[in-house]
Specification:
- This protein is mainly alpha-helical and 370 residues long.
- Helices cover 59% and strands 0% of the residues.
- It has 22 helices and no strands.
- The chain has helices spanning 9-22, 25-34, 47-55, 61-69, 71-84, 92-96, 112-120, 127-136, 140-149, 152-160, 165-175, 182-191, 202-208, 214-226, 232-240, 244-253, 255-261, 271-278, 284-299, 308-318, 321-328, 333-340.
- Helix 17 (255-261) packs parallel to helix 19 (284-299).
- It is globular, with a radius of gyration of 22 Å.
- It comes from Larinioides sclopetarius.
- This is SOCS box domain-containing protein.
Length: 370
């Protein structure tokens, strides 16, 4: 039931271009001046500036458009890296100081393990931060080497900090003169409190996964999804490592979150194929949440790295009549109707939604628009 993703050559080339331009000092200065990463800003605030910079190199307007459209997903990828490693950075701009360490794969996604290995090798980064990263990524040799050479004050600081459960287990075992077994790390992962704002266990999931039993893989993945601590690419990877019956059970329990992970660059082309297989699991609440994400969080925010209007129109067209009837009674239907019934020859324009302000609270299952 799992859908394999093969990146196109265009996808790989464009992501490489965007990554190189995201290093550009002018782009970095732009985000700092606007005090937000590009993915959280209205395109009108930054696209003209980026376009002007790109026009010096790419005279083709079509190519520039393709490149500009990928700035938001690349920016979001950096933001997600920073959030999932928030124990060792103080927000987005601190994270950007590590930009030169980022290593990207062919999908235009940060290769987290290679990135962490590079950061750990940099002696100008605090040892306590490098130690925490090494623990989350189970880099045993680096962990033991740093613990051996760590000043006593830093040891006390590490022991007194709020950490992910994986780091806590490593620190406890090192203080006792040993190293944790995989079983201990799994128990720590599963036994953590649902919400610890200062830290994340997201990084540990993919690292632990190959070492886990069939049952523990399922338990750790569902635990991570339930606590909203799974990077979309990690979720897709972990799903691919489950057997078909386990995949089906994850789809059944976490339909919305699995589908949402396929709305992220660069796998949106597989979304509708996966959706075809998920209708039997989808509830009307999940359906409403998906419409909210596609309309309010993506289309109305100006994301154009994929044809989301096409996705939304097809999701609506394929949906059961009772789902449609339910949504038609909700305020979201007014702006939704502008998109699902659009059939113009020109690309859909956000001007058609200018009278609506999205004010949706997804976590509370409230879907409305002012």
């Amino acid at each position: 039931m799992y859908i394999t993703i093969v990146p196109t050559l265009k996808c790989m080339v464009l992501s490489k271009i965007v990554q190189s331009f995201y290093y550009d000092p002018e782009i970095r200065a732009l985000e700092k001046r606007l005090r937000q990463p590009l993915c959280f800003l209205p395109p009108k605030d930054w696209v003209p500036i980026v376009n002007q910079r790109l026009s010096e190199i790419f005279p083709s307007r079509t190519l520039r458009k393709s490149v500009v459209n990928l700035f938001m997903p690349i920016s979001l990828e950096v933001v997600m890296w920073g959030y999932d490693h928030r124990e060792v950075n103080n927000g987005f701009f601190s994270c950007m100081d590590m930009w030169n360490c980022f290593r990207w794969n062919s999908l235009g996604i940060i290769d987290r393990e290679q990135t962490v290995k590079l950061i750990i090798a940099k002696r100008n980064i605090r040892m306590t931060d490098r130690f925490c990263l090494a623990c989350n990524y189970e880099l045993k040799e680096d962990i033991l080497e740093m613990w051996k050479n760590m000043p006593e004050d830093d040891m006390e600081r590490v022991a007194g900090m709020v950490h992910s459960p994986i780091i806590d287990r490593w620190v406890h075992c090192l203080q006792e003169g040993g190293v944790p077994e995989t079983r201990e790390l799994v128990d720590a992962f599963l036994g953590a409190r649902p919400i610890i704002s200062e830290c994340s266990r997201s990084a540990a999931l993919r690292v632990l996964f190959p070492e886990l039993s069939k049952e523990d893989r399922f338990r750790c993945l569902t635990c991570s999804i339930r606590h909203r601590e799974t990077h979309p690419d990690d979720l897709r990877y972990c799903l691919s490592q489950l057997d078909s019956s386990q995949q089906t059970e994850v789809y059944r329990r976490h339909t919305f979150w699995v589908l949402k992970s396929f709305l992220h660059w660069p796998v949106q082309s597989a979304f509708l194929d996966l959706m075809d297989q998920m209708w039997s699991f989808l509830t009307v609440l999940d359906f409403g949440d998906l419409l909210h994400v596609i309309l309010c969080q993506i289309i109305m925010k100006g994301w154009e790295d994929f044809d989301y209007v096409y996705i939304l129109q097809n999701v609506w067209r394929q949906s059961p009549d009772d789902f449609k009837d339910s949504i038609k009674k909700a305020p979201i239907y007014e702006p939704l109707r502008s998109v699902i019934h659009y059939g113009g020859l020109e690309p859909f324009s956000l001007d058609l939604l200018s009278n609506y302000e999205c004010n949706c609270h997804l976590n509370n299952k409230i879907i409305y628009i002012e």
